[in-house]
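EI: anyone free to look at a 556-residue chain?
SC: sure, send it
EI:
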Amino acid sequence: MLTDLEIARKSKMLPITDIARKLGLSEDDLELYGKYKAKLTYQAISRIRKMERGKLILVSAITPTPAGEGKTTTTIGLSQALNRIGKSSIAAIREPSLGPVFGIKGGAAGGGYSQVLPMEDINLHFTGDMHAVTSANNNLSALIDNYIYWGNPINLDPRTINWNRVQDVNDRMLRSMVVGLGGKKQGFPLEENFMITPASEIMAILCLSNDLEDLKTRIGNILIGFTYENKPVYVKDLGFEGAISALLKDALKPNLVQTTENTPAFVHGGPFANIAQGANSILATKMAMALSDYTVTEAGFGFDLGAEKFFDIVCRIGGFCTNAVVLVATVRALKLHGGASLKHLTEPDVRALEKGLENLGKHLENIRKFGMKSVVAINRFASDTDEELEMIRVYSESKGFAVSLVESHAKGGEGAVDLAEKVVDLIEHDRCTLNPLYPLDMSVEDKIYTIASEIYGAESVDFTAEAKQDLKQIQKMGIEKFPICMAKTQKSLSDNPLLLGRPKDFLVTVRKINISAGAGFLVPITGEVMLMPGLPKTPSAMEMDIDKDGNITNLF
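SC: here you go
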């Protein structure tokens, strides 16, 4: 079979102006980035936001293997399939991070015959949004350090600064260091911890902002640290919010591209779901919902991370609700959760699969906690046997869920037509409702426990001494009503990546709670989750190359 890159190059793209015309947009509504990429203008955004919205479908997944289970491929395939059955549909997904692209997981542009194009551009520099977020984040770091260097009139305590620099790479060497060495002219010594760009609060803010004014307000509300008198210091106290917002002026505009079947797609923003909210921008989702009957979006990693945050954070802030959930399941992931080793996931193993079905069962229970209608999409791989696929179907239907066998990777939209028809049957004539897991006026401890017990299945939650101090600080600042954005491993329902399947009687440990006042949520850090990933022994970058004519090879 052809590689993803070969399929992408063989696909016939239409000029992005033609794609826009399908949506009722003119060339004046676009800011062109070459022939096949564009951003919406602010004038177009202002007009579109007043239009009536269509239905929203969220694609999530069971607890994934390290390679992922094909959520984005299914999202794109479903959107293509909806167009095939006569429904207007737009896919709204996140932008890839260079960390996974050069690491092990790959990009976030789909795969096979269900990709967004131009694939090389989207997976590498695209329209520069990732770089804009990185620049905005690091300029803020420099401005803060410079403020202290030149006298620090507000008495900001450098020991309390919780604003980290970022890079869009997997680089373990940047996790912990000391900067400012070399004498008085070089600044002042300071411990520094880099994070990957998708973990930046700037990225979260970009994806939660409705317009430039909202963006600027949120950046002004970023908590920098505290004074020596323990008073909070925000970006607006130092007057930097205008400059930082200016760096994000273009990055805030949603990116319009197309799929391998010329279905319109918005690809915008890229927060990870294990350390941030894990969804594309609210602005892009709203544009897609206004311009189509059915918007298909995805939330990162498993339902316990991306989907929970989508309902409890993104939908609340965005003011929209979801009509249905598509839960992606794969034979290989269920066998992993049933005890099979990574090296043997392509081998038939009915016993491991049967045991691993408990993981699927927990995610199905969680879908019901939000009152959602759902279809289980079995993302088929060539190594799957009919017996294994039948086991998943029977199990899912026994739990009351419709099931569809999806082959979006191999067949594009055609491979998801059955899924599209089943989703439409579920929601065509229904109004959506928003059913968050917890009320915002619940205490912070209770909100964290509710997520850990109801969604993860934890017995209890333990707060370290540092986390308890954070709780006191949160109460003192009067921000207890913020929603919760858990930072947790994506490899397990628990906070321990080694506990596969459906763990029971486990304890979730909250090490500390970061305050993302600009984004408007609290981030409990659980277990040993890393905010700066590292590269594997054999990273994908080792296979990539480029020839004298600029043709990239072995991207995927």
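EI: Residues 129-247 form a domain with the Domain 2, N(10)-formyltetrahydrofolate synthetase fold (CATH 3.30.1510.10).
SC: 👍
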